[in-house]
Amino acid sequence: MSDLAKYVAEFFGTMILIWLGDGVVANVVLNKSKGQNSGWIVITAGWGFAVMVGAYTVGWISGAHLNPAVTLGLATIGNFPWSLVPGYIIAQVLGAFVGAIIVYLMYMDHFAATEDPDSKLGVFSTIPAIRNLSKNFMTEVFGTAMLLIGILGITNSNNSVGGMGALLVGLLVWAIGLSLGGPTGYAINPARDFGPRLAHAVLPIPGKGDSDWGYGLIVPIFGPIVGGILGAIVYQLIVNIH
User: Fold this and answer.
1) Any stretches that span the bilayer, and where are they (predicted)?
2) Who contacts 64 (Cβ-Cβ below 8 Å, separation ≥6)?
3) pLDDT higher at 1 or 228
4) CA gap 33, 216 in Å, rounded
5) Tens digits of residue pLDDT in 119-143
6) 5-19, 101-115, 153-167: which has the minimum mean pLDDT?
7) Ramachandran bin of 51, using left for φ above 0, alpha for ψ from -120 to 50, beta for the remaining angles
8) Is the pTM of this model over 0.85?
9) Which residues contact 76 (CB under 8 A, 6 or more apart)?
10) What percent of the chain has pLDDT over 70?
11) Alpha helical stretches, state H, 155-205
12) What gap in Å lies between CA 15 and CA 176, rounded to an integer?
């Protein structure tokens, strides 16, 4: 498979991830949507299913990282070539940006019917429940570490998961959201937050308010990067001890 094909696959896979992931948030939080107020379990399930669909769609081409933290974590432990890392990350961010625009186009009337600017930003990007940058950062580190530990465990050749890998990773993301997503909304993916936050900044959303780059350029980008690398190293240490 050519490098270009892998980059295109990461673009489309991440676009699908955000299309469905931001889509479920829009369905739950925006006014006059049929799913309004259906709650956190619906949001976390939707994100888990979004990961699953994106992974099944392009995993056979690119491995379906769909997340710079995964790409960097795998490269750090030698499971992915560093030469492909920049292209993967660029494709993931662009895919996330386009996926967010699609969600906006589908929910335009509901954005217009919603007054709360935080609800509008929350469709695109993560917002902490209690704003404390150091603790929010730590939450993203540990959440993303769990993501990498889980992914590497699920895909370990000693586990006979066959074609169930993407489903199990989707369930992993659901579990992380249910258990660890409360403090920050669990970005655990720099592209998932940065691409849609950029879309929020440039789209003509009525009454949208600030895109909160003071938070968005720190916690949901560098927290997952640190956590992804840390999680991959921890899992590798466990394997090496064995």
Assistant:
1) 12-30, 42-62, 82-107, 137-154, 166-188, 213-238
2) 9, 10, 13, 54, 55, 56, 57, 58, 166
3) 228
4) 27
5) 999 999 999 999 999 999 999 999 9
6) 153-167
7) alpha
8) yes
9) 229, 232, 233
10) 100
11) 165-180, 190-202
12) 21
Amino acid at 47: W
Residue 140 CB neighbour total at 10 angstroms: 34
- pLDDT tens for each residue of 170-196: 999 999 999 999 999 999 999 999 999
Q: For the residues 209-214, what does the mean pLDDT come to? A: 97
Can you tell me the distance from the alpha carbon of 34 to that of 225, in angstroms, rounded to the nearest whole number? Answer: 36
Query: What DSSP letter does each residue of 29-88 carry, written as one string?
Result: HSTT-TTTT--HHHHHHHHHHHHHHHHHHHHHHH----SHHHHHHHHHTTSS-GGGHHHH
Looking up tokens 């890392």 gives 85
d(CA 35, CA 58): 28
Q: What is the mean pLDDT of residues 221-239?
A: 97
Average pLDDT, the chain: 97
Burial of residue 187 (number of CB atoms within 10 Å: 0-12, 13-18, 19+): buried
Handedness of CA 128, 129, 135, 139 (dihedral sign): negative
Angle between helices 219-241 and 68-76 in degrees, nearest 10: 30
Vertex 97: Cα angle to 28 and 228 (nearest 5): 85
Give, in order, the Cα–Cα distances in Å from 130 to each of 19, 112, 126, 136, 194: 27, 27, 12, 8, 20
User: For residue 150, which amino acid is it?
Assistant: G
